Amino acid sequence: MSDTSHQLDRTVDGQPVFRRQFDKGDGRDLFLYGYTPHQAEPVEGEPLDRVAGSELRKHPLRGDWSIYAAGRQNRTYKPEAASNPLAPSRPGAPLTEIPFETFDLAVFTNRFPSLYGEASAPAPSDLETAAATGACEVIVYAPEAEGSLATLGQARRRLLLEAWIDRYEAMFAAGCAFVLPFENRGDEVGVTLHHPHGQIYGFPIVPGPQQTAADAFEAGYDLSKEVASWGADLEIARAGGVVSYVPPFARFPYEVWISAIEPVSGPWAFTEEQADGFAHLLGDTVRRYDAFFGRETPCMLGLHAAPFGRDGRFQFTAQFYPLLRAPDRVKYLASVEQSTGVFTVDIMPEQAAQRLRAVE
What we know:
3-stranded antiparallel beta sheet
């Protein structure tokens, strides 16, 4: 069983960041990140079973791809606290996904992946199909079972950012065409595990929205210039050369984007100041949502960086899509949105920005 430690090239406020790579008993990778080397001994136990089997199929009329992964149907669903698979493992108890009693931040290969490196080619078909190669990883923000990007603290958010960057580099090196770190939060989004965590998908293709965005940037669209022209009416907060705002073309009520004032193609290109500002605004945005709605806000977060090899003019954004239009009212994506892709937005972006900006 392989077990190696490595110091990353980047630092956080002068502190080194370490990664321990540990091969789990079922053959999946586990990466442990921290500001000090992780040296704990693994907890012994029976490894978890892993599931595989999926393929990509292209819709002949819409032109987009779907992943068919039947093995995910029986994935872990809202377990009791004592059976939390993202918690640290305890001696004498069934192994969790992280077979250590202590850790700071962990990344592991998803037990129920949609995409995986050894995926085989689909059977011949009249449809356009492709092997579901790529990667699906889970990133566990902390050992504690409760918390959010707002409560993790700046040092932990910076560690999370360094882990994201490390996984971007690894997935691109493995041949992925596009990498999406993301978080689903809240029951309304369909979350099945409430332990603070996100996921990272490495795609073998560039999905349609990201292909369109890359093409727009390469054709000359300048988001940074546009953000500056929108002015204070749409801005929410600034920190370290990074700004949060509601874009005037937002599709969700209270949608928020974060981007660098001097644009970068991905978080790997952040300066130290930008990285600090970005990490702060991640927490600030979630804090504002929770305070504004008076509850844990169900939302989706995606990091939109350049596809592999297309850094060029691409401008990185983090995009939050909340699923509330009021504290007790869910924004459903119903027939019109699903059929046409045309969203009906229940609040003007300028109003949303003003209300979020006013949150103390």
